[in-house]
Amino acid sequence: MPGPQVTPKLKRKHEGEDAQRKKVRMQGKSNAGPATNGAGVKQSSPKPDQTGAKKSKSAQKEKDLSAPPIAAETEDLSPEASDTAEQSGKPKTSSKRSRSRKEKEPKAEEGASQKEIVAKVESCSTDTPADNQTAATGEVQAVSKKHKKKKQKSRNTASWSVSAPSGGWFLPQDAVFTPNEKFLITANAKALLIYSTETSLLASTLPAGSGIISAYALSATNPDHVYISSNAGFIILWDWQKAQKVGRWDIGSNVRQMVSVRQPDPTSNQDLVFCYEAGDRHIINVHALRTKAHDSETELKQILKSKTTILNLQVLLQGKIVIVTCANSVLIGKRAKLHKTALQDFEYVWREFKTPKRVTACDAYVRVSETISKSKDPLLNPRDDLDLAIGSEDGVIYLFEDIVPAFEKAEKSHKDGKKTNVELDALRPKRLHWHREAVATLKWSKDGNYLISGGNETVLVIWQLSTGKQQHLPHLTAAIESVVVSPSGSSYVVSLANNSILVLSTTELAAKTNIVGIQSRRIDLEQLPHKNSNDFPVHVYSQIPMVVDPKTGTQVIFSTPSSQPKHQAGAKPLPEPYMQTFDFAAQRPISRQALTRNLATDSNIAPDGGKILEPNVTLLQISGDGQWLASVDEWIPQREDMSYLEEGIPEFNEEERTFRREVYLKIWRWSEKDSQWMLETRIDAPHFLEDAGANARVLDLVSDPVRPGFATVGEDRMVRIWRPTTRTRDGVVVRGVKGGARRDLVSWSLDQAVEFSRRVSSTSSTISLSSRLSFSKDASVLAVGVTWHAKDDTDVVHLIDTTTGTVRRTISELHTTGLSSLAMLGRHLIIVGERIIVWDIVADELVYSVAVGFVGVDGDRRFGLTRLAVNDDNGTFAVSSPRFEEPPKDQWFKKVSSRVSIFEPQHPQPIWTSNVPAMILSLAATKVGRGYVSLDSSSSIRVITPQATAFQLPTPPREITPTRLRVLEGDEKDVEKIGGSIATLFGDEDLIDVGENDKPVVRAEQLQEIFEVAPSHALPPVKDLFNAVVDLYARKPRDGAVGALV
User: Membrane-spanning regions, if any (predicted)?
Assistant: First the structure.
């Protein structure tokens, strides 16, 4: 293992650290200026030249480098405006303002030739006065003015757009079957979703419009109509077959649940909608919603007002019986005046009984006897045989048979005869107990002979009430959240806590339909920061590992939890042991695979009753060819499990936990036959703290863009590069069958290890707080950015030569804190912390530095909420920053969104900016096209792409016979490295035949000046080298030459 490396001096000279720090400080001061021009440069009135040309040129360069914060120059778009712009596909900023801004923006010096760069670097030394440095720089800028004008035209001026969100979590509400059971209706926050039960595919989508969908219900009179309510206070009636709106009503309240029944009037064929409306009060209203096609008017009747939150609402016999479930009580309401069918005559008599444990599920069933069924109108019969089943938080199911007479008997036992609420034991229920945790859902079968229940055990339990036997369907991969019985009773709809829905046959319990959504981290409303408060769980918004699969270019791979029950959301950070693949072009999931050991279907209860947590996948990367996948998972005992070592010293207890940390680097290989990733190599403790004897955390993982290989950086201040090697035995390659094909067996091992600073023990205060890696496009340079806990260690970026494994340059002039992201784009290094810093590696100087523009969040936690992605195809990079805005007066939670900005490394002003109405948790560049793909806190995927422009065919060149230049012996190899064959040097140039004696002679020293100006990892782009070689061969050899290469 190599020891600490000394940073070697580069062949070229660069500006001293003091001068670079001065530039950064000047940019910070210029950002606070009161007046700026279109390019963000501080305006000043013209004054006579007092100090000469040197001072003038120095001031000019300071202006060119300065840039204001993003928030001061970008248009603030609300989420509503962002959604409108997304649907229309129009740019979100004025075209005139955009054009004027681009005309005034300063241009970078990337267009300068290689000789000019060398001259500039040599003119700036560490002992040169500042005035001389800036004067020399100004001269170079004047020389390269022509190159800047050429680059001015090539700037990306295309507009960008954000696609409509795809995915999202299904609402925690029972799915609804259509009467013919051919379609299943469910919803997410933004749209109503209609799925085909035969194909499991999405058949139709009905957008919610303004607001978020809070409830939905199928019409009882017309199976083609469905009611949708939103938190904006609207109820919309849709014809889901024709995808047309039928009616819209503003009821001015937030509907949490709704049930549609047929109006009991025999002469009427209209709906009554029972709604639970939450707010300052908990109310159940009955709405008679009417459109212009109806003869009657819209009516409203309040039937219940409660002080406690209502958990469930069930309506039976066209509103004759209403069951309301609260946290510790159940209310049964029965309509008194059955012969009166007008809505305003609805009067209910309510009976309530208390429960000793919290109620988690409830369902009722009405048994119609033969004598009642033979009567003219069963709804008018006052005798009801009502059976009730409730599930409690301790896993017990209470079964009440014919509960109404039991209620009446309990009421008569009271002397006053007026008390209508009794205790649960007074009703003498039966007890059914199998679940070890809370009963999440409970439903009666169609014939009333069975009870179906489910919970966190991932087991569907079917209770046969006549015999007391149980039937189990285990291993459903996630906790069961709800069960629905189809209208015919032939199917069960099971909603799981991993955002999937199964349709099972009741006879064989075989899956007939499988509907899967995006299963990323679930963030509920209760986890959002409260109004007038900055306290919120930061871990909820931490970055989700996500990569784009280069094999297809349209599939993203990201980590997911095994199960996310809604009643456990936000309690603790859930580990993410699974990986899901989602096709954002087809808008459908592809696969789901476990990357670590998981306990989703096993008994994962510790002896003390706590839950055993799975390992957490913290990092994920894929190779450039898409054949190799690397993952890092970490497991550490819970603090509760370390109580037996409690000695009253918190620091000691935390140190003991770190000693028991498990960290694994796993390398997976793609199997075409099985269409899944197969584990090839597992590396235990890829980073280790030798002084402390504990496993070190892996802080970042990147993939080699050129050949198979991955690089990691850990808390031990080591960078390790891992590469595959073919297994051999006695010099013979070992072959085997893996993934259904016979191939050479491969093992991954350590290829290089670079120590960029001293190693410390696990108890030291200088353990790395954050560290990021990034390869250059040709994999010749590996950049390492480090932020340390210790105040005496400044944030630095090390540039490592991957060929020799040495640190070639240490950039300590950044003056940034809280490094959150790092990336290399061409010759530029992008650093994101409290500011966005662009550093030119070739010129070894700062290009610009702008503020990120955080809103509503401060402190160190804001740095973990920014995202960065670079796209080499169009030379842009995208940055997202968090925004926590104060909500309106009638809302309790803050408004959470992200500001996304697209930059070019040459210009400090973003070329496009927009708001996303959710917190972006992952951001990556697409492999097909020139855009970006994001995964946000609503489990939705959005694609950000430049809008298509008119395609223009290139003008064909004149037919000419090019004259091939003579290349000196031994130089053909160098020419091919740059541009391929020598013939490519003449592709688009007009040549005139020249004589044999007019060919230019190129000496080896001249080529050496071009290619040996810097180390291989620090050479300028190929385009600049190409232009330098062409200029060398195309120069005019002597006066009177017949022709020259222009």
Answer: none
